[in-house]
TrEMBL record:
It comes from Alicycliphilus denitrificans (strain DSM 14773 / CIP 107495 / K601). One of its GO terms (molecular function) is methyltransferase activity. This is Isoprenylcysteine carboxyl methyltransferase. It comes from the Bacteria. GO terms for biological process: methylation. Pfam families: PEMT (PF04191). Keywords: Membrane, Methyltransferase, Transferase, Transmembrane, Transmembrane helix. It is found in: Endomembrane system.
Length: 153
């Protein structure tokens, strides 16, 4: 397989997985669940996911480092404040929470497979290569951060 590391922007992966979730929900309509309060749950999840993404982006900007996920080697600092105190990847986590909101909206447990695909793909082709690049760039301080803060949650 050709090298996919840092090739496809994460929001594109998120949208592709949202499409996959929709397709999976439509492929097996008999599995659809009727959940009371579903729209409220969707609103809370979507808002929380968006807020987490924006908080992560704002924190990067405040520290003057690049938020570009396709160029981790251009990072100027290891950000450890804001949401980066409890997750190394708040923007990806925010995308995953928004995808979870979409799956809840669809009401199909089968659509959750798309969320699993998103997490697996982003971990393998985005996060692990980012961690390698940042370890090479920042050395021991970044290694200590990796040991202290979880990758997802």
């Amino acid at each position: 397989m050709f090298n996919l590391e840092h090739k496809i922007p994460p929001p594109v992966i998120g949208l592709a997985c949202a499409g996959l979730a929709w397709w999976l929900a439509r492929a097996a309509p008999a599995l659809a669940l009727q959940m009371p309060g579903r729209l409220a749950l969707v609103a809370v999840l979507a808002s929380a996911g968006l807020a987490l993404e924006l908080w992560g982006l704002w924190t990067f900007r405040r520290h003057g480092t690049t938020p570009n996920p396709l160029a981790p080697g251009r990072a100027s600092t290891v950000v450890q404040s804001g949401p980066y105190r409890f997750t190394r990847n708040p923007m990806y986590l925010g995308m995953a929470v928004q995808l979870l909101a979409w799956c809840a909206y669809l009401g199909s447990p089968l659509s959750l497979l798309a969320l699993a695909v998103f997490v697996a793909y982003i971990t393998r082709f985005q996060i692990l290569p980012e961690e390698r690049a940042l370890r090479a760039l920042f050395g021991e301080p970044y290694q200590r951060y990796l040991q202290r803060v979880r990758r997802w949650i």
